[in-house]
Write a structure and sequence with these properties.
Keywords: Cytoplasm, Endosome, Exocytosis
Number of helices: 34
Structural class: alpha+beta
Helix content: 40-55%
CATH class of the domain at 826-972: Mainly Beta
InterPro entries: C2_dom (IPR000008), C2_domain_sf (IPR035892), MUN_dom (IPR010439), Munc13_1 (IPR014770), Munc13_dom-2 (IPR014772), UNC-13_domain (IPR052095)
Largest sheet: 5 strands, mixed
Domain C2: 53-185, 826-965
Organism: Armadillidium nasatum
GO cellular component, one term: secretory vesicle
Radius of gyration: 47 Å
Length: 1041
Amino acid sequence: SEELLADVLFSVNSVMGQDIKNTWAVASTGGSSPTSVSLGQVRTLLREAFQVSPEELHGILQEVSRREAANVTLTLKVIEACDLRAKTVRGGSNPFVTIQIPGTSQSHRTRTEPETLSPKWIQEFKMHDLDQKVGHQVSAVKDLKSFSRLVKGTTALAQKHEAHLLGSVQILIKDIRENGINGWYPLYKESVTPEPKERGQIHIEAFVTAAEQGISPNEARKSLDGLIAKLIYHHIKAMSNNNTEEGSLQIPWHGQLTAEANAAIAQHAIILGIPPALQSLSWWLVGSRVPSSDAGWQIKHLRVVQNHLSKGVYDEGEEESLIASFIDWIDSSLLKLRNLKRNFPPNSGVLAKHQLSSLLSWTRLLEENLKGETVPENQIQKIVIITSEVHNFLCEIGTFYSPSLLKEMNIPYFREMYLLITHKLNPCVRPPLINVYNHLENYSEVSIQDNDEKKISTLTLEDGTNLWQLYMNMGRLYKLGLDLPAEVRKESGIHNYHEWFNKAVKRWVDLAKVKAELMIEKAVKLDDFEPIDEYNNFSTSATDVSGIFTDIQIWWQKLEWPDPENSMILMARILEDICSHGMKYSDLLKQKVEAMFSIQTHSDQLIISKQICTGLNNIERIRDELTRMPEKFNVRSLIGTVKNSQTGGEKASENFKTNINTLIEISSENMETKVTEFIEAVIEKMKSTLHHAVIQACDSSSENTLFTEVLEPSLKLLHKNLSDNNFRRFLYRLWEVLIELFHFNVTRNTDKRKASYFNGVYHILNASAKFFSPCEDVGLTKDETHSPEYVHLMELLECLRLSSENLISKYYFERYEEQRLLNSQSKGEVVVRAFFTKAGKLVVEVIMAKDMHLNNEVGSLTSKHGQFGSQNQHVDSYIKVQAMPSEWFPTVREMKTKTMRNSDPAVFEDTFEFELKNDDNGVSSGVLLLTVKDYCLGRSNKFIGECIIPLQELQCIDSSCKHTVPNIYLKVTQPGMECGYSSLRALRLRRGDKVAMNFLRKIQSRLPDTRHKSSGASTVSSDEDKPRSKSPRLLQKIIKS
């Protein structure tokens, strides 16, 4: 306190001087005329406010006198002038301004503004008013000191350089120190005439600043806050002595202080260098915390601070202080309203009524602040804040207050507050939503196509927007009331909140359809039809379209529309739009890929590019995506919800299920038709080359040219880049066209050729049939070649030179490489010791397994722990040991460890010996497979994972040295992406190979990506080429049902 007093006294002495008779003119708060206070009066007030004795005050003054004098700076800004007198023959003037302080050597001059009577200078000058050299003299003659402002202009006679006085103005520096100046001042000039002439006005601004060295802006403002608080509470204490009536309202402090207090505050602010905006902030920070301050004054001063805030004059720390004080002020004001009788006693009459009215007025302003907002984005943003606060408030009630009140006093506090608040919230949310919908109607599909989507992005029901956040908040509020009785929920103001967003949802669906079509067009346009990587045979556009479908699916899942019956209509609309997107994508692909197909001029070879194959694979991929849409959108769950609802029923759910299945089936068939049409278009362009090759082969009685130069190049490329299903379609249709060409050629030459010619055609046809059907599982069957329906390529077997056993070995080596990857997902760890002995045995010691994880599906009936199975339960584990491929090691039997129940880690310490030498056939390419399983009584044992050790990496030692063999720590993994194993893709093509098929059946359940795929190749129906009807409108079917 004494330190603050010393700082204030230093400020007062620096501004007013040392003579106690020196005065300071200050306008009393609420008064109209200035009041002069002396230095002695200011010191007396400070002594009383800080409660120090005269002796203590004298000691502090002695300490203050030893401080280094403050550096006071006079800042003067010449802004502009108007209505000046003309001094040139052109009727203008060349004005400039000189600034002088009499008694000092300080002088300044502005630039000259040519030929104008309304010059604008806007120049700032800084003058050290009180420097060390003349400090004593200035203080002695301070009240008499002034500065002159001379406005001069040059004449038109530049050669004489004469300056004429246009006018002058004199202002006391003392006035600038006390209050600062900012305004227009009339110019005057001494004249002998009784009536002075009008000489114009000049706009000037000036203020005095001074900052103590070593004080930060934050410390300076805190020092001013402390002084204001000290003087306010001193003033209130003096006021309270006059209010002695018991039970009456204390006379509020209206923001007024004595002239002495105002002088001390103003002088301390000058020395601290605090501008007016920060002074207003200090008054608010202190005054808003005074309990007896007048509510009207608080609101008035808050508006002043708000005006400064809008101009951005406060920094981040000052804004945080303002927000904290505003929150405290709101809390204290609301606390007053909770006890009207105590805070606004009736016996205080007009005084209490005025305070209550002022307090209620600002609460009304806060409430009407939202109503006055006309911009839809701002309205929704404010409602989001309100709903978030309401949710937090109700959560606190439900978890803290309501249980106690209900238990001890049987008061359903949560129910009453829920009904009250939701009824208040209804008129707050619905009108702005209607305003948003009206605003959205101004945007059409054309505006989106014109790249206007940014203007409506904040008003759409899309993740990340204020409207979406509002919907989420309303959903959370609705869920808070789910535990209330049904009749209570119906009485709430938000029981049908989702209906308020009906137009927003439908609007989003409409916009999403248009935006998706534009994105699909752009994706196809930018696609170069190159496979995205070596493992996938589709290009970027297929990935983009699949991503669009996924985005729509994620939006629908996040929406969680609470009305099951309405969800059927919306989901049907969304799925119908997705299917139409698939058809549009197929049409765009067909148009672009057809343009890529080319035939070399005057050439017998067909040029089928890789891009054509990729285009066909893209259509196939999107068709597969469409077939999985019901699963992704969880249609089955919605059907069950509708079936169990009171308004839905079994009939509505069955109709919906039938309509969805019909939609997906027809869409899939339509896309298959697009593939068939595309293949037909490609082969149609091949006909001329095929026809020429057939004629040449028949004429030469040799099929070599037809096969090697025409068919093989194209079919090889197609087989490598097309899916099996599309390749067989292509072969089948190509075989039909080839037979047609042979038939046409024979018919045309019936009466022109000899028998030897037709004999050659016969052998060529037989060779062609064998070319298209080299065996039953590669190419077309004999029935297909004789009734041209399906097709295949002769070179297929050349791509599969490896035996099935070698492919199995290759698969396990691929799994071994995958097992060694650092980022492969671990399902546990197995510790073993394995080695060959010189006696011709393979010894495997299974020591332990730990950190085992099961892939249980939560809630599934097959879960080991029932419907609510956990992922971290213990397992009944055992390990199976075998050498693979098993066909290479017929003497090595499969061995199993004992089962360790509910153990992790599971310690086995089982040792197995196999009759196998390290140089036997197959060891160099064989592996040791350890399969970890979970034993399930009465059910199939569950596969946890497996680990592989190449046999060639095991060392061969003497039996006596087995203790020197180190332990092997193996990561337990499961097969990853199916497309990552080239060996499996090759094995699947060997459908007649028992070894391959047995192996595939054995590992099929271990491949998570193939569980849901149907086995076997689909066949083409006999009416494939018939035109198919379009998908029915689901909305019409559902409405009819």
